[in-house]
Amino acid sequence: MAPAEQDALAVREQLFHQRVRECIICALLFASLYILCHFIITHFKKHTDFAAVHDDEDAAVDRIALGLCTFTLAVALGAVLLLPFSIISNEVLLSFPQNYYIQWLNGSLVHGLWNLIFLFSNLSLVFLMPFAYFFTESEGFAGSKKGIMARVYETSVVLLLLTLLVLGMVWVASAIVSNDAASCQSLYDLWEYYLPYLYSCISLFGVLLLLLCTPFGLSTMFTVTGKLLVKPRLLEDLDEQLSCARLEEAAVSRRI
């Protein structure tokens, strides 16, 4: 084998091992986030009524919805922690540039995590969360056989109609804002333009909701904290307390 072929083969093998390592790291990170989110949701989730009567169908629906919600929360938590992870990994690489055991914290891993977070965020936002909501509310079409698949069919139809409605609204908004007729007629723009546009609009709505709810949350937090904590007595006047105690003692002695 020629030296050039050997070098090319070595480069391919190195890229293959790097890709496998990145997949393993991403899987471990997501598994850790999924387990953490599962404990968080099960801790705050209310016990349902069908859990007491042992309804297998409703219990299966609840488990599926719980899994979808846990997956979505894990993706959201990963999106929140991705920027600190990128900053910390960059600082670690700059601090220990020659360490072999931390070379996996490279730009390729962070870039792959960004792509996965963006993909799963759109998937959770567009499909998983609406599917979980409609799946828990569905009962199957009238006249159809009851069961899990009947609920899946009804949820899929409702979700398809909702998707067409949302895409139509986004298409109309894009047609109003932009005068380019070609961009409104291209199906390729569904992934390149409409989906990021929808994601940005919902993110903006979430930021506005956060700005609206943050003052009320802070005021409630300080109110609850003020009720739980004991106020300090550093600024109290001891002479006034002593005079009040003497007056109470004199009043009690006169009564006696």
UniProtKB/TrEMBL annotation:
Full protein name: LMBRL protein
Keyword Membrane annotated: yes
Family according to the record: Belongs to the LIMR family.
Pfam families: LMBR1
Membrane topology: Multi-pass membrane protein
GO cellular component terms attached to this protein's record: endoplasmic reticulum membrane; plasma membrane
Subcellular localization: Cell membrane; Endoplasmic reticulum membrane
Keyword Transmembrane helix recorded: yes
A GO molecular function held by the record: transmembrane signaling receptor activity
Top-level division of the source organism's lineage: Eukaryota
Signal peptide per UniProt: none
Residue intervals passing through the bilayer: 24-44, 64-88, 113-136, 157-177, 197-224
Biological processes annotated in GO: receptor-mediated endocytosis; Wnt signaling pathway
Organism: Caloenas nicobarica
Keywords attached to this entry: Cell membrane, Endocytosis, Endoplasmic reticulum, Membrane, Receptor, Transmembrane, Transmembrane helix, Wnt signaling pathway
